[in-house]
Amino acid sequence: MSAPLGPPPAGRVSDFLDRLAQNGVFALDGKRRGWLGALLAVVWLVYLIPPVVQSWRQQQQPAAALATVALLGYTVLIVTALIGRRGPGRDLPSAPSSVDHGVRPILAAMVLCAVALVVLLGAAALPSALYIAVVAVFRLSARSSGWVCAVVALVLLLLPLVTPRLSEVPLYVAFVPVVVWTLRQLGLRGAMLTELARRQQSELAVAAERNRVARDVHDILGHSLTVITVKTELAQRLLDIDIERARSELADIEHLARDALTGVRDTVGGLREVTLRGELANARSALAAADIVADLPDPARLPAGDHELFGWVLREAVTNVVRHSAARHCAVTVTPTSIEVVDDGRGLGAAASGSGLTGLRERVRAADGILTLSETAGGGVRVVVTVSG
Predict the structure, then answer these.
(1) Does residue 160 share a domain with residue 29?
(2) Do both 311 and 191 map to the same domain?
(3) pLDDT tens sequence across 273-327
(4) 20 to 30 A Cα–Cα from 2, which one of 15, 204, 327, 369?
(5) Distances (CA, A) of 325 to 339, 344, 353
(6) Quick one: 191 and 307 in the same domain?
(7) Domain ranges, residue 349
(8) Residue 373, exposed/middle/buried by CB under 10 A (0-12, 13-18, 19+)?
(9) For residue 249, is it within any domain?
(10) Angle in degrees, CA 176, 179, 185, rounded to 5
């Protein structure tokens, strides 16, 4: 059996660059890079002034004049190319094949100036060819700049070997274009990874907010509409029996509808607050309307704290009891670290996989709690949520 092939060399290099670029060390913004390049160009101008001055002192006026013009022109071209580079918004390599065609004439002129400087000043001017690679790296695509850097590196490597006049140039200078190209790719990859992370975080935040709104709206409307349905059915039965109580139930229905509307508005605005005491009052009303005997704790004896999570648990559990259980009795027990809702109905059934319990599981998980659903010996359902003290 043959061993599985690993990723191709190019893939391994790409993965390596991605790992190194995670911290964004090399991801400077374009404006600062441009001014840094201009500063370095001035440094090169200072570095090449002595050979030009020496040429003037040796009474080589034509050569000295040409060297001066070439040096000034080379410096202007470098500053123009680096200051006028692409803006930060175009730094990400979303289109690797794109090429900044406007820099090609600048590169061609730089090559002519560099050749003139080397011919006129000798070995001292040869390292100035590095800026051809620098400009290519910042103004061309990765592939195009890679070829330019390779050519410049070969020139810096071979010319000192074959031309005695240029043998003073250290061979390590030939590797500088490769280093510059690598750092540039690290910067681009770091910027790309940072941008991707930012977009993913934004998308996750939007998805989380949508889920929150959907969950809260479901819980609010599901509970309110269930109670409204039960109370409407009760009011219809009472119209011919007890008109005053029917009116009371209709008033409760109006109150529930207004509360539901307010709750939806608050949920969309992120202002929805749920308390255990408030949900106990709602549970008492809902269970009474469904003719379910309720055994609820005394609000005055509840543990300290608002217990918002327990309020959501009670709301969802009571909604399922009223809607699905056909129970006759429902008991709620609250401790400082847990809430238990038990009914004597017909079991979980379809409610076990409903969106309400799914949202409840998400709430409990977000609060680092534990949700337990089980059926009692008599066929009812026990909902228990426990949180750390």
Answers:
(1) yes
(2) no
(3) 678 888 888 888 888 878 889 999 988 888 887 688 898 899 888 888 888 888 8
(4) 15
(5) 19, 8, 15
(6) no
(7) 292-389
(8) middle
(9) no
(10) 145
* 5 burial via Cβ count (<10 Å: 0-12, 13-18, 19+): exposed
At 28, the pLDDT band (50, 70, 90 cuts) reads: very low
- Looking at the fold, whether 185 and 307 belong to one and the same domain comes out as no
Name the one residue in this structure whose structure tokens are 């255990």.
276
304 and 193: one domain? no
3-state DSSP assignment of residue 375: strand
Residue 343: closest CA among 314, 309, 373, 379: 379
Boundary-marking domain end, from 173, 197, 221: 197
Strand order in the sheet with 329-335: 293-295, 329-335, 338-343, 381-386, 370-375
Residue 240 within any structural domain of the chain: no
- pLDDT range class, residue 351, cuts 50, 70, 90: low
Query: In this structure, what token pair is assigned to residue 134?
Result: 């620098």
C-alpha dist (Å) from residue 283 to 5, 163, 303, 318, 366: 63, 95, 18, 6, 24
Closest CA relative to residue 149, chosen from 169, 163, 166, 129? 129
For the chain, the domain total comes to 2
User: Which of 197, 224, 259 is the C-terminal boundary of a domain?
Assistant: 197
Is 305 a domain residue? yes
Residue 302, domain CATH: 3.30.565.10
Strands 338-343 and 381-386, sheet pairing:
antiparallel
Q: What is the DSSP letter of 290?
A: T
Our separate counts of H helices and E strands in the chain read 11, 5
- Nearest-CA neighbor of 125 among 91, 75, 86, 82? 75
